[in-house]
């Protein structure tokens, strides 16, 4: 009987060793599975972060490009406005010079009139002519001013339209 208990003890030791080995193997297997899942999760997170960064970079590039387009439109508008104002100023100066020349010519003619009636007729003619030219030139300047304003605003209007279309798509 004393042999059997020793054999049983040896069997128990073997069983304990086998169970312990299986436990260690299960723990190692679980650790490997956990590490694989963690690595997969890290890779997935890394891919999402990379995708987010790429999207942010594209958005930043689009904003910079859009801002640059806005600046170009503003510069173009300013150039159109400056050129238009210069043209209007030249036209206004030419009109003023012509009116001055006509007034000088009329006053010279006044110095050689023979009667008061001729002087009054000449003065009335100058006044009528000046009034008609002033009204005509005023209309021309008003039309030119409106046209200039439309031309100068056109690049900015185009950018606003583009912005509305672009942001309407993302909304």
Query: Sheet with the most strands?
Result: none
Number of beta strands? 0
Q: What sequence of helices (H) and strands (E) makes up the elements?
A: HH
Can you tell me the overall shape? rod-shaped
Descriptive overview:
The chain has about 170 residues and is an all-alpha fold. The protein is about 95% helix and about 0% strand. Helix 1 runs antiparallel to helix 2. The protein is rod-shaped, with a radius of gyration of 47 Å.
What key phrases describe this protein's structure?
mainly alpha, about 95% helix, rod-shaped
Indicate the topology.
Blueprint: H1 3-110, H2 116-170
What's a concise summary of this model?
This protein is an all-alpha fold and 171 residues long. It is built from 2 helices and no strands.
């Amino acid at each position: 009987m004393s042999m059997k208990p020793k054999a049983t003890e040896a069997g128990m030791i073997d069983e304990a060793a086998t169970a312990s080995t299986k436990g260690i193997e299960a723990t190692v297997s679980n650790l490997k599975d956990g590490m694989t899942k963690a690595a997969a999760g890290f890779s997935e997170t890394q891919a999402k972060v990379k995708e987010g960064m790429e999207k942010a970079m594209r958005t930043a590039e689009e904003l910079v490009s859009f801002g640059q387009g806005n600046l170009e439109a503003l510069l173009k508008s300013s150039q159109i406005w400056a050129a238009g104002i210069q043209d209007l100023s030249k036209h206004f100066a030419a009109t003023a010079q012509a009116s001055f020349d006509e007034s000088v010519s009329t006053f010279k003619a006044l110095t050689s009139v023979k009667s008061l009636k001729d002087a009054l007729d000449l003065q009335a003619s100058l006044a009528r002519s000046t009034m008609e030219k002033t009204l005509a030139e005023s209309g021309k300047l008003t039309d030119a001013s409106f046209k200039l304003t439309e031309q100068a605003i056109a690049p900015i209007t185009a950018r606003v339209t583009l912005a509305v279309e672009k942001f309407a798509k993302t909304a």
